[in-house]
Amino acid sequence: MSTEPRDSLPLLPPLGAATLLRALFKRPAPSPDGIAPASYRLDGIDPLQVRRYNEAFGFPGQTIPLTFLYLLAQRAQLAAMLERPIPFRIPGLIHTENRLAMHGPLALTAPLTLTTSLHLPPAAPNGALSCVLETRAFDGERLAFDCDSTYLIRRGSRTPRGAASSPQAPSGAALGQWRIASDAGRRYAALSGDWNPIHLWPWSARLMGMQRPIIHGAHTLARACALLQAASGSEIASVWCRFRHPVALGAQVTLLHGGRAGSFVAMCDGRPALEGQLT
Known about the structure:
CATH superfamily of the largest domain: Hotdog Thioesterase
Distance between the termini: 25 Å
CATH class of the largest domain: Alpha Beta
CATH architecture of the largest domain: Roll
C-alpha cells in the first residue's frame, strides 16, 4: 500500500480513447533502477457502470461481480505504464494471463487506494519476454481486491514441429454457449473504456495487423464467470485464467466445466480460447 496520505494521491484516471492515444505515442525508456509503484485514489465505484455491466453479462442485481474489478485494475495498470518510464511499447502487448481475487464485501461508496507494481521476469528459454502488472486495492488498511495481469512483450521462437507433446483434450460438461455479436467489441469498449482498435471494426483491426476484429479477453472471462456463478449459486471469490487463442467477432463460444474442481475452458473453433480455475 502507498505510504502517501490518501488525499495527496492523484485520482484514478478514466480509461478511454484519449488514454489509449497517449499509450500509442509513449516511447520506451530505460529503467535501470527498476520501476516504482504508482498509486491512485478512487472515491467510489460508479453504480451505473456496475448496473450496465451486470445487465450485459447476466450478473444479478447491483452486487459487484469479481470480474468487474478488472475494469478498475486495468485503469490503474495503464495509468502506471503511462506515468512511469517503461522499457517497452504499450501497443502490441498481448494479455496472456490474469488473476483476480476479492477479499470480502466491497461497497460501491468505499474509497479505494489502488497501487500498481510492474515486474519484468527473465526471458523464457525460447526468448519470449513478458511483464507482470500487480494491482492491490485497499479500503483503508484492508486489502479489498488484487489483480495480477501478465502481458507478452516479445514472442519467443517457435517450437519445432513434432518436438512438443500433443496438448491434452479439454474435458468437462458443456455449461452454455454464446455467439459474439458483430458489434460486441464496440459495446464492451463503451462499457469498459478499452477502445483498442483490434476489437472494434474490420478496418481498424487490419490497421493493427489483425485479419479480423477479436473480442476482449476480459469479455470472454466475464461471460464464463457469469454462467459459472449462475450454475453454482455462489459468488466467485477468485479466478485465474490463461488466454489461449483470440475469439473473433461473430464466433460461437462453448463453456466446458467439471474436468476437475473449479476448472473451466471456453472453446471456440474447436480449440481452447480461455482456460481457468476459480474458487
